[in-house]
Write a structure and sequence with these properties.
By secondary structure, this protein is mainly α. The chain has helices at 3-13, 22-32, 39-53, 62-71, 81-84, 98-124, 138-158, 168-182, 190-193, 203-233, 237-253, 255-261, 266-272, 285-294, 299-302, 305-308, 311-318, 324-333, 339-367, 379-385. The model has no long low-confidence stretch (mean pLDDT 91).
Length: 396
């Protein structure tokens, strides 16, 4: 039995009244990777979860419940994309007010990408023992830092950190400051809890953080798309167009994430992805939520594996979620002008389609002919969906 497993047994024996030892558990899972985690540790975590579900834990910690579900996905044989990316641990952008959602998204992007820079520079300097296998050299770390700074700059500027001389060490400090300032005053740090790789390959840290950052952008875009529908229903096509243009900008700001992800070494990626079977971005609720807010999915797509993988989104579509296409049609029938909305739809559709093509090209380089990890056919699936029209009657 590991020391961490013994600590958990003691915590349970003492009535689970003290603070849960999050960080020792995280460090142990990072030491081995979730796929090769110590059985005694996993069994102890499963006992903790049983106690939590039975409400034997004094504070009924919601974060603890979510953390345990993420940590035990391999143990439970339910490893999927949401648990791999630990999305439930983050307070993703949501709500009807796009302003607070933008600020929340910016803080999350700064925290996640700042952590990439911190991890890369620390490993290069020989600090830290996490994910020690296949570490990159100085030139590759420098390239990652350049791309990471490009991702950080727009978010930092909106948060009031506008410094032309920002370099990697200063960006790490600023990112940490922004993250701490935006955190809730109590409870464990979700940034520290959300790095639970399946293996011990260095590049998996980069992979997970980039996926998490993309999900932040999807959540923010969904808020903007909801706001677009609301503006159209309120007979305000100008506001609707502005929301769509801002959503297109969000897609544009994710472009350096692809450049950052492209620094991941193919041999490293193919090594750790051996243990990610069952988890695939086809299971991204955020991505399908965006898609289903633009127009109703075609019946064949709604009945395909794409929506089988996101049952909650499919249920919302079946219940009749309001789409931008429908709101535009209704505005036109009321006699409203829609030309500026159509122009914004075209700009947004072009931005999203560029994103899809970039994603497809990168996946083709990384995966080759290997099938996808979510039981899809991998790259051929992506090729089949890159040009699905975003809106009816507009370019894809």
């Amino acid at each position: 039995m590991t020391a961490t497993a013994a600590t958990l047994r003691l915590w349970l024996a003492e009535g689970s009244t003290g603070p849960f030892p999050f960080l020792p558990v995280v460090r142990e899972l990072q030491r081995t990777g979730k796929h090769c985690a110590d059985v005694a540790l996993l069994d102890a975590l499963a006992e903790v979860r049983t106690a939590v579900r039975a409400e034997q834990v004094a504070d009924g910690d919601r974060m603890l419940r979510r953390f345990l579900d993420v940590a035990l996905d391999k143990h439970d044989d339910r490893h999927r994309y949401p648990s791999y990316t630990a999305l439930s641990l983050f307070d993703l952008p949501s709500g009807a007010d796009a302003g607070p959602a933008q600020r929340r998204a910016d803080r999350l992007v700064v925290g996640l990408v700042g952590d990439v820079l911190r991890f890369e520079t620390a490993a290069l300097a020989g600090r830290g023992a996490m994910l020690p296998r296949m570490r990159p050299g100085p030139d590759l770390v420098a390239k990652r830092c350049r791309h990471g700074l490009r991702v950080l700059s727009p978010a930092l500027n909106r948060l009031g950190v506008a410094r032309a001389d920002l370099d990697a060490p200063r960006a790490v400090r600023e990112a940490a400051r922004v993250w701490v300032a935006g955190r809730r005053p109590v409870g464990p740090d979700p940034l520290r809890l959300s790095m639970l790789p399946v293996d011990t390959i260095h590049d998996e840290h980069l992979f997970i953080r980039v996926l998490q950052t993309f999900e932040v952008s999807f959540a923010l875009t969904a808020v903007r798309l909801h706001a677009t529908v609301a503006a159209l229903d309120a007979d305000d096509p100008g506001a609707a167009a502005r929301h769509l243009d801002t959503a297109a900008t969000t897609f544009g700001e994710t472009a350096p994430l692809f450049a950052l992800l492209a620094t991941m070494r193919v041999e490293a990626f193919r090594t750790f992805r051996t243990f990610t079977d069952g988890a695939s971005a086809i299971q991204s609720d955020g991505y399908k939520t965006m898609e289903s807010l633009c127009r109703p999915p075609d019946p064949a797509r709604l009945a395909s594996a794409a929506y089988d993988a996101v049952p909650e989104v499919r249920a919302r579509v079946a219940a009749g979620v309001r789409t931008i296409d429908e709101a535009v049609d209704d505005l036109r029938r009321r006699g409203g002008t829609v030309y500026q909305v159509h122009a914004a739809q075209e700009r947004f559709a072009r931005a999203w389609t560029r994103w899809r093509h970039t994603h497809h090209r990168l996946a083709a380089r990384m995966l080759g002919d290997v099938r996808g990890t979510g039981y899809t056919v991998g790259v051929p699936y992506l090729a089949s969906v890159v040009d699905i029209p975003v809106f009816r009657g507009l370019p894809g």
